[in-house]
Amino acid sequence: MNALAATNRNFKLASRLLGLDSKLEKSLLIPFREIKVDPDEVNALAQLMTWKSAVANIPYGGAKGGIGCDPRELSISELERLTRVFTQKIHDLIGVNTDVPAPDMGTNPQTMAWILDEYSKFHGYSPAVVTGKPVDLGGSLGRDAATGRGALFATEALLAEYGKKISDQKFVIQGFGNVGSWAAQFIHEIGGKVVAVSDISGAIKNRNGLDVPRLLKHAVENKGIKGFDGAEPLDPKALLLEDCDVLIPAALGGVINRENAGEIKANFIIEAANHPTDPEADEILAKKGVVILPDIYANSGGVTVSYFEWVQNIQGFMWDEQKVNCELKNYMIKGFQSIKEMCKTHNCDLRMGAFTLGVNRVARATVLRGWEA
Question: What is the reported pLDDT for 69?
């Protein structure tokens, strides 16, 4: 089952739990324009953003877009030209109160700065039109680390439900990019033991716990974790099957599937990546008693701080990093509490509780605005 089919399946199950009539359900399944990066994946991610924004309780809808390329194969000059031409094509579709792009795979603050500059040629300087910008151009403090920090707060909330703390757990993290590396750093700082990680260069493990600060330095200097002397190499395909308490997939979608789900040893899975677990794997893991914290909540820290950045730009008043992190923690805790209430109301797991929460909020707004007809 591909990402779009899985997302539609979860949406329909949530709609039935809520008792939405068929006309309203159909109106919420927004038809998205086909995009050639990967139509199914982009459409699924756009729909997920709708529910993610609703779960986070921020005033955004959902959209996705992208360019079919490998940025690692392009020079800085080529990336800039490509980004500026892309912005020229979409400048009349985005806007401060219309569609606000945020960074995703293959982009960084510089990419967002180019979009801002190119958009401003057509519409005047408008810092609130994109988020994830460099701080010098109106970006928010704490935005780079936001998704990883949000995943940390989400993990703390989940473990607390079971009387556990991060400092008592062993973690495996798939992906050591922006999200995975920040999550590893925060987990290490509060006493959690990161025993294995992977990135595009390979995978490594140390049963006694990795020295994350040294690993971060090594990854920057060597463009990957491969060759780190404080660990032994590991087959990347075996990483997900390593013995641990908490597994954090923070890279690509579809990595946990029916082929490997039965061999996963973790008690908890925190979906820091988008759609890392297939529906078939969901069922297998549920039978094993594995608790999954779904992506539309677990990795919502990034979009939440993007919202904070947008608010700061509109107000023309920048927050200090402590305020950003404090507000993010409040949003993540409230989000988890709302999901748990939905789970109790509808007697469902966390994934369905999150989808039900998101769909319910969108459905209510739709009815209140008179769009259901």
Answer: 87
Long-range interactions of 66-72: CB distance < 8 A, separation 24+:
66/35, 66/37, 66/42, 66/104, 66/106, 67/37, 68/36, 68/37, 68/38, 69/106, 70/106, 71/106, 71/107
Please tell me the predicted confidence (pLDDT) of residue 33. 37
User: What residue has token string 């990093």?
Assistant: 321
Greatest distance between any 2 Cα atoms in the chain: 63
Which among 172, 182, 179 has a CA at the least distance from the CA of 205?
172
C-alpha dihedral sign at 2, 237, 277, 183: negative
Which H or E run contains 51? helix 39-56
Q: What is the mean pLDDT of each run of 10 residues along the chain (373 residues)?
A: 62 66 56 53 82 94 87 93 96 94 89 97 96 96 96 97 96 94 97 96 95 96 93 93 96 90 96 92 94 95 96 96 98 97 95 94 91 66
Catalytic positions: 64
- Beta-carbon contacts of residue 293 (< 8 Å; ≥ 6 apart): 154, 155, 158, 268, 269, 270, 271, 350
Long-range Cβ contacts of 79-83 (<8 Å, 24+ apart):
79/111, 80/114, 83/111, 83/114, 83/115, 83/118
Instruction: Give the pLDDT confidence score for residue 286 in this predicted structure.
Output: 94
Amino acid in position 145: A
Q: Measured between alpha carbons, how far is 130 from 165 in angstroms, rounded to an integer? A: 36
CA atoms within 13 A on the CB side of 226: 8
